[in-house]
Amino acid sequence: MANQPKAEDIQQAPDGQQEGSPVASGWGGKIEEQYRKIKEHAETYPYVWGSYILVYGGFGMWLTYRWRKLRKTEDRVRVLQERLRKLVETEQSTNSAVVKEQSANSASLPNKPPSSGDKATK
């Protein structure tokens, strides 16, 4: 009951609404009331709000810088991964072609016994 305004403190406006009453209807009224409070506080304490802007603005700028740097690094890594993937694919395709060629050549050659010149003499 301590929060309720007294009857003599409340003045009636000509249109029937109460003046001085902080009762706000709906979300719009609540937002307006909060905006009014913040505006009054900012006008009363400008240096405090200046320091808020300086500190949180600097923090936001640093976060933005780090975020963009991270994105650039990720992009470079993706490009390098793509280049490496293409290199591996070409290397595997050339290796598989060489292996097929060697297997085809070895199948076409008759099996010869090792020559006696290859053996070490005692």
Number of alpha- plus pi-helical segments:
2
Helix content: 55-70%
Largest sheet: 2 strands, antiparallel
Alpha-carbon Rg, integer: 41 Å
Strand order of the largest sheet: 1-2
Whole-Å distance between the termini? 118 Å
Which class of secondary structure composition applies to the elements? mainly alpha
Low-confidence stretches: 16-21
Instruction: Please tally the β strands and state the result.
Output: 2
String of helices and strands: EEHH
Strand content: under 5%
Average pLDDT across residues?
A: 79
What coarse outline follows from CA principal-axis ratios? rod-shaped
Biased composition (Polar residues): 90-109
Protein name: Transmembrane protein
Region (Disordered): 1-28, 90-122
Organism: Handroanthus impetiginosus
Q: What's the gist of this structure?
A:
The chain is mainly alpha-helical. The protein is 67% helix and 3% strand. Keywords: Membrane, Transmembrane, Transmembrane helix.
Structural key phrases:
single chain, 122 residues, mainly alpha, two-stranded antiparallel ribbon, 2 helices, 67% helix, rod-shaped, Transmembrane protein, transmembrane
Give an account of the 3D structure.
This protein is mainly alpha-helical and 122 residues long. It has a domain at 24-103. Helix content is 67%, strand content 3%. The chain has two helices and two strands, in the order E-E-H-H. The chain has helices spanning 26-44, 46-108, and strands spanning 11-12, 18-19. A two-stranded antiparallel ribbon has the order 1-2. The model is unreliable at 16-21 (pLDDT under 50).
